[in-house]
Amino acid sequence: MRRMIMAALGLAGAAWLAVSTIGSPVLIGAVYPTGGSQGAGGTEEYRGVGLAATYVNRRGGVHGHPIRLRLEDAESWDAAPGAVERLASAGVSLVVGSYGSTISRPAAETASRLGLVFWETGAVGELSMKATAGGRVYRVAPTGAALGRSAAAFVRDQLAPRLHRAQPLRYAVAYVDDVYGRSVGGGAIAEIRTSRLPMAAVFPYTLRRLDYDALAARIARARPDVLVVAAYLEDGVALRRSLVRARVPLVASIGTSSSYCMPAFGQLLGRQAVGLFASDKPDGDDLRPDHLLPGAAGELRWAAAEYRRRYGDPMTAPALAGFAGGLALFEHVLPRSHGFSAAAVAQAARTVRLPDGALPNGSGLAFAPPGTPEAGANLKAASVIWEWMPCSSTSCLTRVVVWPPAYATHPIVFP
């Protein structure tokens, strides 16, 4: 089955890159999971990158040079270094990836060690100083720390004032203790502490032999009003079920990109998800083109229609992240680069500045310079806040964008 998926992706890539450009191709490596637990999202994000290559190639490529993608599958963290090394052996100097935070870190470290540019389109987890110090690792999507800060700030600025309480809300943060969870959880903790809000407790946890009922009981004993959760799908759902069973009296709860925002989260929890919030990237079908700059609006309309035509589904957040991240590189950085070497592309990336709304996911582009705490991170990456709420049908559940107002599809329903 995996060989069939890889073959199908290869054929799709060939179809994407059938263009009328005349220059020699620009070979760009791609490291994404196309199978395993992260395969669905990785495939969607790679499809988005492929659409970006198609879009640029149909307009003449990069100064007449068509973009050609070479995919190396990496289903887990230990497969990432080998995937990057194979691309380097094939003469690739630019690598895009990788959807998963656990894959992104070793992929970025290997690319940096080999002197390649690593262009992260979707993963939000922590990257090591070893990876970012060389100035050739760039992340277009928001960092996990930014999503965590946005989650805490949304509760502080938008939800808390609606309660008209004399005393500030007490916060707790629960996070899976890995590169993804530490990034998101750390961002939320930093925002809470910087705001001098009461911190009830912090709950890092490991997935191995996790007792969700025991964790819920610990959270209950801390008596928080607000719980921020950085979890994957399975542990996020299991923890929420345990909190409901324990009747923990939370005023509000907000999660992030790898659980609370996912359609499967609502499908698994049903009514138990109602009223929960999520801090994450937007979907293609939920982002309003009229709030983007004209060029980005046209790109979004084209991509959403083309994705649905090809795959029969709406453009998901990973697909849109891949499309926007691909365009950032193919359309805005490479044309400004003096050649396609890693050094030239890295130099161009550091100089490109795009205003908010210039990319089809609502982002701008401005990378933090090397030597700074956020080196390589896109300081203009866009994110939104989702809320789970019932449809008109009592058995139906939907998620809607409620913040910021420019991208909201529904007003906040709280308390």
Automatic annotation (TrEMBL):
* Domain Leucine-binding protein span(s) in chain numbering: 26-360
| Family named by the database record | Belongs to the leucine-binding protein family.
Task: Please tell me the species this chain comes from.
Answer: Candidatus Segetimicrobium genomatis
Could you tell me the keywords of this UniProt record? Signal
Q: Which Gene3D superfamilies match?
A: 3.40.50.2300
- Spell out the protein name for this chain: Amino acid ABC transporter substrate-binding protein
Q: Name one Pfam family in it.
A: Peripla_BP_6
